[in-house]
Amino acid sequence: MFSSRLTSDLHPNRLAQLLQAKRQQGATLLDLTQSNPTQAGFSYPEQEILQALADPRSLCYEPSPQGLAQAREAVCFYYEARGHQVEPERIFLTASTSEAYSYLFKLLADPGDEILVPRPSYPLFGYLAEMESARAVPYPLVYQEGWGVDFDGLSQALSSRSRALVVVHPNNPTGSFLKKKELERLLALCAEHNLALISDEVFSDYAFAPDATRVPTLADVDSVLTFCLSGLSKVAGLPQLKLSWIVLAGPRNTWERARERLELIADTYLSVSTPVQHALPRLLAAGVNIRAQIAARVRENLTFLRQSLRQGPCRLLDVEGGWYAIIQVPRTHSEEEWCLQLLEQDDVLVQPGFFYDFDSEAFLVLSLLTPTEMFQEGVARMLARVSGG
After folding, report:
1. N or C: which end of the chain has fewer CB within 10 A?
2. Structure pTM?
């Protein structure tokens, strides 16, 4: 009766089952997986946001496949403030980056075609590809005192059905940015194999330190068809106000052909809310302060984590930006067992590395977005548990 594109296994895993039981028991948990900024104790300019959404123009429906002109211009100003020239004609608004991926997979892939995606990374690409009757094929990132693309592994992942290559910049959860030399090789590979390049840049405002070898954005690429994704969820800490965008880049004649086809796809759905589009200039302005609070929080938590792990059995992997940190723990237990012990015995919730497709043990993933006091207590309990074996 149901589509084969949907997974048949809908049962919660052991960690989810234990978490549900703990919550039903009324346990006070230290959640070190917090990814929702609206529930992480930040100060939001409530009146400014609400007033922005009260624009009378929102009462009039103006269907626009690419998005309203003034909203796309606001996105252009966002890039201009970062030293990049992006024209409104190169921008498509979507309700989320997930929807942006669905548009791009529709645009680029026929049923059975393949999308190359990084591993480890956020465990969403497989589902998004499957729902478009495509297949996500992982290519490896390797860690050698810092994360980078394994180009040998990437070459092995290529096939005649490869249609696009996804980079997450910076990656979630590794926090690694694409470097200029890596981009040169990726562009050459995409040109050779006629692949589009998709750059997920939602965390790009959250770098921990400057790096001249780093690529700031792929919105300036002019040699290969490229799509850059971002949105309000991370840029302004406003995931509830559903608006994201795609920036088209590459050879003009190529991205213009892509734009024509994307317009047809977007016109089929017209999912972006009119009030949020009209509010976008003010929401991006309000997001500057929210983003500063988030950046200060994640830096403070990362500093505490580095200091806490100077000695002991745990190792903090190098991280360049984003909202997450990865800790390597002793393999005396599996990742799952470590997570279950911490939740059952210490009321601390962390994520295992296999949630993000790590191909070896044993890694725990922590959110640096967690309120500082909770983060510090949770880390202390975690280290006590790990040190105790």
Report:
1. N
2. 0.96
